[in-house]
Write a structure and sequence with these properties.
Length: about 425
């Protein structure tokens, strides 16, 4: 199998676990990716010092093409996206020469353009292509204000249609994605539901984990923790509205673990609103340390802006939060909110409603520890039932095998016709 992704180890994405799970099941996996530079925007120093040390991962061979680092600013990001397309198309087929593949799997978080080298390689290798859609374009570009021109969004839509039509299967991280994917693919039979799961790091019971040193000073308070990317989509202005509503509730603290493009603005807003006594930014830390941070949380916060595209999304952190066995506090709509409700794992309010978020925070803080513990246990059981990693990877194996068999039958029929 060929796995193609712009992002890969030592960058932290779920595609890493797909590769390790498949190799553990006996599959021969090759990864085509770029130079690791996420999230800081510069090539990781340890990779730059010794690229050969990153040429194998969990038994898979890792082949890398040149890539312009993300850097800072929109122009640098666009150049980063297109440099992967350029070098992936130019050097990808050459680096993979002489190799045969039974299937190609594309990990598609932003940008959708990262699938273009896979389409070219599919032509050379005559292998079926499966695309895992974690981020809907052009909807996301419009929702976060990256692209405002209707004409440009239309061009992106044509590109999405071009890619979707040439995929053999399209895997959607949320059932809410189906209508938009089918709008562009024009073939509902191609789409499958393939949600995310909690990373293996969260298989550990938090009772056996020591609190992270960064949260020790906050013990004795009711800690609401946000962990992950700090960006436009997470709507931090509304989160800070809630914190401002509860300014006098000094027993409630908001702990922000992570980093992102909006982090400087969030830091400035905390200072300008005078929230330094209740809102704390704890910085970005490796994924493997997250259980220690979650150990110090009384509730885990997930939020998304009030946009139709985000109502279709199940944020990846939801599965990690559920697996951690802590109650969730959600400020989001649609699919993500419904998962929290169905799991009985916490309290939810509408996207963008800081006042309602403050009310839910107070409500959660007023519950007994036993009631919150029951919420956490219910969420963990739901996660094991609905988002089990082994079950999902087995499902992926089945789709890969079916796609390969279907392509072989089609090729055989075409040869017989000639």
């Amino acid at each position: 199998m060929l796995v193609l992704s712009q992002y890969f180890w030592p960058e932290v994405f779920r595609v890493n676990e797909i590769v390790s799970e498949l190799t553990a099941r006996g599959h021969e996996v090759t990864v085509l990716t770029g130079r690791p530079n996420y999230p800081d925007g510069v090539v990781l120093p340890e990779f730059a010092a010794d690229p050969e040390a990153f040429s194998r991962y969990a038994g898979a061979e890792v082949i890398r093409v040149p890539l312009r680092p993300r850097g800072q600013g929109s122009l640098r990001l666009v150049l980063n996206y297109w440099s992967f397309v350029f070098w992936g198309c130019l050097l990808g087929p050459w680096k993979l020469r002489g190799r045969a593949f039974d299937a190609i799997f594309v990990f598609e978080t932003s940008p959708i353009t990262s699938a273009l080298p896979a389409l070219l390689i599919k032509k050379f290798k005559r292998a079926p292509l499966l695309l895992w859609v974690l981020d809907l374009w052009p909807d996301t570009l419009s929702a976060i204000g990256v692209v405002r021109s209707p004409r440009l969004l239309g061009w992106v839509g044509h590109l999405v249609r071009f890619i979707y039509k040439r995929c053999d299967l399209i895997l959607a991280q949320s059932r809410g994605f189906f209508p938009r994917i089918e709008c562009w693919s024009r073939d509902p039979a191609k789409t499958r539901y393939f949600p995310q799961w909690a990373e293996a790091t969260f298989d550990t019971d938090l009772d056996a984990v020591a609190p992270a040193p960064e949260v020790v000073e906050h013990q004795g308070f009711f800690n609401i923790m946000f962990a992950g990317n700090i960006g436009e989509a997470q709507d931090f202005p509304a989160i800070l509205d809630a914190a401002e509503q509860l300014r006098e509730q000094r027993q409630i603290r908001w702990l922000i673990v992570g980093d992102g493009r909006a982090a400087p603005e969030v830091r400035e807003a905390i200072a300008s609103r005078g929230l330094q006594d209740t809102v704390f930014m704890l910085g970005r830390h490796p994924l493997e340390r997250m259980p220690g941070f979650f150990k110090g949380a009384d509730a885990l916060l997930v939020s998304l802006k009030a946009e139709p595209i985000f109502a279709m999304t199940i944020p990846g952190k939801v599965q990690a939060y559920l697996a951690a066995g802590r109650p969730l506090l959600g400020m989001l709509d649609g699919e993500g909110a419904q998962v929290i409700r169905d799991a009985g794992a916490g309290l939810v309010c509408p996207s963008g409603d800081g006042k309602a978020l403050a009310a839910r925070a107070l409500e959660l803080a007023a519950l007994s520890p036993q009631a919150r513990q029951a919420m956490g246990a219910s969420g963990r059981a739901y996660c094991r039932r609905e988002f089990d990693r082994a079950t999902l990877i087995a499902q992926l194996e089945g789709w890969l095998a079916q796609a390969n068999s279907r392509m072989r039958r089609t090729s055989s029929d075409q040869a017989g016709g000639r």
